[in-house]
Amino acid sequence: MPELPEVEALKDFLTTHLVGRRVARVLPVAVSVLKTYDPPVTAFEGAEVTAVHRHGKFLDLAADSGLHLVTHLARAGWLQWKDRLPSGPPKPGKGPLALRVALDTGEGFDLTEAGTQKRLAVYVVRDPRQVEGIARLGPDPLAGDFDEDRLAALLKDERRQLKGALRDQSLIAGVGNAYSDEILHAAKMSPFKLAASLTPQETHRLYAALRSTLTEAVDRSRGLAAGRLKAEKKSGLRVHGRTGEPCPVCGDTIREVSFSDSALQYCPTCQTGGKPLADRRLSRLLK
Description:
The protein is of the alpha+beta class.
């Protein structure tokens, strides 16, 4: 799933390629992609893009008409930029193409989604806060006013484990499965540690890991073409998706805990005092 760093890089890429350009056509291909119907998606046609914003993992194209075309790429969605779009209209079918945005210059982009679970979402709204997912977002962890005290306030009554808390978009916007693993590894904390149990020193460590992990990922992605962002994300990850490989910090073997629809990766030596975590489908954390 694209997370804050990749969506931030897409925002920068689209700012360069879209702002000041006029939208000629918006062509939905997958029926499931449109989540709003008033205004219709065709109302965005003919508008000039004036800005591109990011809200958590949401991309927001603002137009001079006052409308916003908002998208969430979900788990398997992506944006593919085309310097020259095909001349004919896209054909509905079983392929990954979900929606096409064509500019009057002949350029544009496709929104695609792999797999069978079609969760990619597109909205046309007058105010981004009309999108429920945006309205409930917590603070952005890279915002200038997101300081250590604010993180402490968010976590002080949080009875969930750190892994789940970091992924909750209504608590902190933009962090998903991959970067929560990376943040916890950098902070040297167990993903199963209760958020409300952090000491001031641990909160300081988690805050530093949160900011540095996301900032470094954004810096690695900045300036890259949209098509290279996936590879850049994968190459920069130290523990997520690297089960069985040596930890780049201590050399211990990276382990995995599987859930029904996802998995987390961690280093026992760095994060859990050398103790492996039990599979959460079967038991609680080994003590």
